[in-house]
Design a protein that fits this description.
By secondary structure, the protein is of the alpha+beta class. It has a single domain, classed as 60s Ribosomal Protein L30, Chain: A, CATH 3.30.1330.40. It is about 30% helix and about 25% strand. The strands form two sheets. Strands 3-6-4-5 form a four-stranded mixed β-sheet. A two-stranded antiparallel sheet has the order 1-2. Helix 2 packs across helix 3. The protein is globular and about 45 Å long.
Length: about 150
């Protein structure tokens, strides 16, 4: 009888403590055996409970709307714009699980990797896609993001 009472108390206290702790989304970054380990991105990212956030393509315009001509400045501006968008949704760069890069020239890849390493967690990088395409209005880079944060 005494054991049943103690067990009931522990279950109730455990439930209260568990309810007070906000859940974190369960993200796993996986590079499966038998698939070549990529440089700078993860092959598979899984997610558990949480709020999904989708960012429309962000470009390299400065906050005043001007578009720099060089790729490096556009890339830094792009990641800063992503940071502001994530913050507006109560998210951080660490919450990104998928990122799509659109560049006008694949020759920008090394510079893109160098700059993104300043923003993204390179130990568990998000799944990603890099595509060469035409972009308008002097844009050399556009980036789309999917992030997951706890509810």
């Amino acid at each position: 009888m005494r054991f049943a009472w103690l067990a009931s108390v522990l279950l109730v206290v455990g439930g209260i403590l568990d309810a007070a702790t906000p859940p974190r989304s369960k993200k796993q970054f996986i590079n499966p055996n038998g698939v070549p380990k990529p440089t700078g991105y993860t092959q598979v990212v899984t997610s558990g409970p949480g709020q999904m956030i989708f960012l429309s393509g962000q470009g390299g315009a400065a906050p005043d709307g001007t578009m720099p001509e060089d790729f490096a400045t556009q890339a830094r501006n792009t990641f800063e714009n992503i940071g502001r968008c994530l913050a507006a949704a109560n998210a951080r760069f660490e919450d990104i699980v998928k990122i799509n890069y659109y560049v006008t020239d694949m020759a920008y890849t090394a510079e893109l990797r160098r700059i993104r390493a300043q923003y993204l967690n390179q130990a568990a990088p998000p799944a990603s896609t890099l595509v060469q395409t035409a972009l308008g209005q002097g844009l050399r880079l556009e980036v789309e993001v999917i992030a997951i944060v706890p509810e």
